[in-house]
Every structure is written in structure tokens, then in C-alpha cells.
Amino acid sequence: MGKTIGYLCTKKHSEAQLYKSVVKADKFYIDLATDRGCSSYAEFNNLIEEVEENDKVILPSLVMISEELDEVYNLLCIFRNKGVKLNLLNPTRGEEIFLTDGGFKTLEAIFNLRRDVTKIRGVIEIKAENQIKHRENQEVFPDGFYQVFIDYKNNGLKAEVAAKKLKIDVHKFYRLVREFS
Prior knowledge:
Layout: E1 4-10, H1 13-22, E2 27-32, H2 42-50, E3 56-59, H3 62-65, H4 69-82, E4 85-88, H5 101-137, H6 145-154, H7 159-166, H8 170-180
Parallel strand pairs: 1-2, 1-3, 3-4
């Protein structure tokens, strides 16, 4: 039979005492926080290291550990992989749904989708960068080419004069005319 473990991060001794009186646990891990809520979470890290299969961990809420969904997901994965049951004393924002199999699978699907989208974005960004590099290496029509082309085709402008206007050699002008025609 596993142990029941209580965890709390608190700013006040009185909160720790109240928590211990409400939560009947075999062992407690208590982290201390500053007035701004900062903590090293050393005791929480010890709890993660020491919990064993069939242990039950009682947390005030998941949000108390982290408001970042990534961190909550990683925490749930750690406890699930170790075979540890989580209980929330004061669940907030519907977070208790993540403790169910269905809720966890939904959360897992979201993270898998996010991972896949990130990979796809990376591929798209690489392709876009390659296209930009390709475009940079491609020849472009010189500024004013359209008007010079019209004058060349319709008004009898000589190729040599047209090329000079565009500041390109005549062979390039002929190649651009063929490409544009």
C-alpha cells in the first residue's frame, strides 16, 4: 500500500499548520514562498524524486504549482508514469478534469497537436527561407522594363537603345524579351 503525501507551497506558518490539520498524510513536503510567491520548489522536487508507485499525492491545486499548461502537463506525465495518484484539495478553473483518463488524453492530444504544428511551422519556415534565397538568386526584370518593352515592341525602339536605357547588355535584353513575350 502506498503512502499519502501532502504538498504545500506557502508564505505563512499558519497556512502550513491548517493544511496539515486538514490533509491527513503520512508525510508532508512544504515549500516556503516569499511575499511575491517566489520559491525554489526544492521540497516539491524532492517529492517528485521520492514518490513511488501507488503513492497518493495531495496538492491544493495544479495552478498552485504552475499556471503554465506545459508545466502542468509535464507534472501530470511524471506522476502518471510513476503510477502516483493525484488528489486536488481545492481545484480551480476545472483543472480536476485533467486528473481523469479522458481529460489527460485530451490534454495529451493538445500537446501532440501543438508539437506537430510546431514541426510543420518549422518546415514551412525553412521552405519560405529557401524560397526567399532562391528568389534572391533569380534574375528579376529591371525597373522600367515594361515601358521599354512596349516602346521596343510597338514604337520601334532599337534593342541596343532599350538595353542602354535599362542599364543591361543587349543579350540580356533579348533574353528578357523572350521570357516576357
